[in-house]
């Protein structure tokens, strides 16, 4: 089992997916403008919450248990699919009722139609199947289906008299195509044994995913409810601007999943072979991820406004402060998820219920307090605060699950370098050119990390399992 091969396969398909989705969103933003984009964002956020509930956060569990169940995997996979179908159907019916009650008139019918196909629309869990079957490059086929259907949204925005609703339907059609192709490929690879489907098997799946399913719902609410709150309190235009900034987080989150999901299978295998090797691999990955994401977040401080202006247009530039804050949220999420992957491979994850619930409370409370006066910036502050809280919890739990996983010496040098960079960022310009003032914090951070011999190395040599269980 090689991490590099699995990553390159998933990265190829994810890269194509991200590029297509990003291009389509940018074109939609320019065609629709902030107000209509805010309406589209409401529908997309509602469907994202429904998809998260129907998915139940099962992909990590699927990756882990397909490795651990061995010869039972065909029966286990059949029960997994049956459980997902039942859950997706229940969520679809509930989503239709809720959409009828609260969805804005402009997107109500499209949202209801998308909810009707929710079990397929939410079927985005096939990468672990392709990886376990040693065919990771098959993930390209569902992506091709998505890329073929997604441009319908642009056509709708250009040609339709009511473009927002048609753009939402195009979003649903592209996701449904992705799910259908993935289902066919996964079915052919693992051949689920539906004769073994029964109450006991589905109950086993339910018990395995219950903590992470509750957490996935709460996390989806925490990640998307801010868009709904901004739309309700500050209006569609502010929601569109905030969603344009948040789109960078969505792209980054997809990159996080691409990079880290193969690690779950590998960490599970390493945990059964050698805890010492697991710790070494985890440390190498954490050093690289923490450093690289901090550099990106520091660069976002000066670049947020010009990037928004260049990508979306001047109408979206008011969200620059929100984008700079969301870059730190993304950096924290990357570190947090790596710690969570380590926990999933080695220990219980029941804590995610209360930690995710606490994050949701923080999101709701801070949005209620800050959005009326700060609009999109207030929502970004709330999101960042909740992410930092969850990151802290995951780091503590990972340290408890695998003693010695964190190097105190390296983290001390990292913290000192980051503190110095943030002090530089907070200082007044003092007559320096804007470009120099903008990159000085990043240069300070990298220079101090180099001087303290804390720059990360290549983790790939440590991410190989020669004797992983079949």
Automatic annotation (TrEMBL):
Q: What does the record say about its membrane topology?
A: Multi-pass membrane protein
Q: Which InterPro entries match?
A: Poly_Biosynth_Transport, Polysacc_synth
Subcellular localization is given as: Cell membrane
Source organism (scientific name): Roseomonas fluvialis
Mainly localized where?
membrane
Q: Where, by residue number, does the polypeptide cross the bilayer? A: 15-33, 39-63, 75-103, 109-126, 138-160, 166-187, 208-231, 251-273, 285-305, 325-344, 351-370, 376-398, 410-429, 435-455
Protein name, UniProt field:
Polysaccharide biosynthesis protein C-terminal domain-containing protein
Keywords, alphabetical: Cell membrane, Membrane, Transmembrane, Transmembrane helix
